Amino acid sequence: MDRTAGKVMSMREAVASFVHDGDTVSLEGFTHLIPTAAGHEIIRQGRRNLTVVRMTADIVVDQMLAAGCVTRLVSSFVGNSSAGSLGELRRRIEHADPEPLAFEEYSHYGMVCRYLAGAQRLPFHPLRSYAGSDLPSVNPGIRKVTSPYPAADGGTEQIYVVPPVNPDVTIVHAQRADRRGNTQVWGLTGVQAEAVFAAEKAVVVVEELVADQVVRSDPNRTLIPAHAVDAVVVCPRGAHPSFAQGYYDRDNAFYRSWSAISKDPARLREWLAEWVYGTADHAEYVAKQGEEFWAGLAVGEALSEPVDYGRRL
Predict the structure, then answer these.
(1) What angle do CA 198, 204, 205 make, to 5 degrees?
(2) CA 50 to each of CA 37, 47, 126, 137, 160: distance values in angstroms, whole numbers, following the listed order
(3) pLDDT reading at 82 higher than 80
(4) Are 87 and 263 in contact (CB under 8 A)?
(5) Helix, strand, or coil here: 285?
(6) Cα–Cα distances in angstroms (integers) from residue 304 to residues 48, 187, 252, in the given order
């Protein structure tokens, strides 16, 4: 596939093409720009036996677990984004109910280092922050090596390392991209670029598709370049209930409601039946919410000042 050619496709086509049973799938976005709509399409297509890599495993992971998509989770945080708990995830880890979940835990920085090692095709990445931590005792993937360089006191130093992660596919959400996949993000960012470069394939989901000249007019906002992207999916409001800076606000009411929904397995499956299986795609999910709902998440303008890049005379 020519990774610089036009590559726009529907969410259904992208998931069918790039997410397969047994794959390792990275879903990244830190509080902001969470690829929820992509997770829902994975559920609709009935993917199974996935390893999900997500630094902040939250509602979308809980939903994918309840749908039976995930058998292994690699993460550095699990929770309902300061608004409560994840009922399905807790049942799997604490009681193996309805079946166990393999859980591989790292710190946030440990996960960043794994993506960095994966993106650079390194065998491991060193870090100091596990000293005094209990994580190495529960995760055999966190190991120590002898530094080839002398320590500050001239002696030999043992340093922790983490292995690379190289997902079969990374899916991220962003504000905009051009048809080739040059992807622009502003506001709060996470490890989207590193996760894309670490993966074999990458799908970028965006609020809007823009002309090439829009991207060229502000090149420093391009977080992910076209050559790293295999598919571009246009999916407005596809990060809900998280937010997309400049497009819509965070749905705090939904986050607060999720603990009660996910605490009850029957209620959780009813929610999936209505809002995921019961909608053909994310456009139908959006329409089902209604315009009054979306008006409540609308945001006003907060324009940045123009930047003059200059040009040769």
Answers:
(1) 145
(2) 17, 7, 27, 25, 28
(3) no
(4) yes
(5) helix
(6) 44, 11, 26
